[in-house]
Each structure stands twice: as C-alpha cells, then as structure tokens.
Amino acid sequence: MSQKLSQQQFERGESEIQRRLKFTLLAVSRASSVTSLEVRNLQSLNAAVRIPIGESLGDTIGKLKTWLDGQKIVVAQYTTTVDGKGYKYTVRFRNLDDADRFRAQFRLP
Hints:
With about 110 residues, this protein is of the alpha+beta class. It has 3 helices and 3 strands, in the order H-E-H-E-E-H. About 60% of the residues lie in helices and about 20% in strands. It starts with 6 loop residues before the first helix and ends with a helix.
C-alpha cells in the first residue's frame, strides 16, 4: 500500500537525510584524523638502534635490555633485522614517554 507524503513529511524526511549525512561526514572526518594521529603515534612509539657489522649483537642488546629493565620499561614488541650495514634492533614501546626516554639515553633521532 503506497502513501503520499505531505509537504511537511517530505521536508522532515529531507532534513532527516541531511542530518544523517552531516553525521556520517563528521564521523568520517573524525575517523580520518584519528587514523593519521594513530599512525603518527605508532611511528613515534618505535625506536631503532643500528648495530654495525663487527659489533657484538648479543652484548649490545644485553646493554639495551639491562637499561630497559632498570627503568622498569616493558616494551610492546622488538624485532631484529639484518642488512648490508649490520643489524637493526627496533623496539616498539607502550607509550611515548618511554620511547622518548630510550631515544634520549641512546641518542636516537
């Protein structure tokens, strides 16, 4: 059964659509800015140490871990990769303060 909408119902419907559209656009806008902020924060949570070929990987990582333990810093993740220049030890921290303290201690950018 079809019904004809009155002008008032039509206008209310149109304003409802406009309201939902504005809400959707606002949500997308907020999501986009949160996403880029999260990406920046994730990058800032990472700190990397380059260990040149010839230096002891075990000794260097041992020193880093000893410092982390002494500061009572629990890392979220760490990885070690190797390339032609040596090893790269990357640490992901749980918060920006810990990452900044680590960078300051080991003179990282």
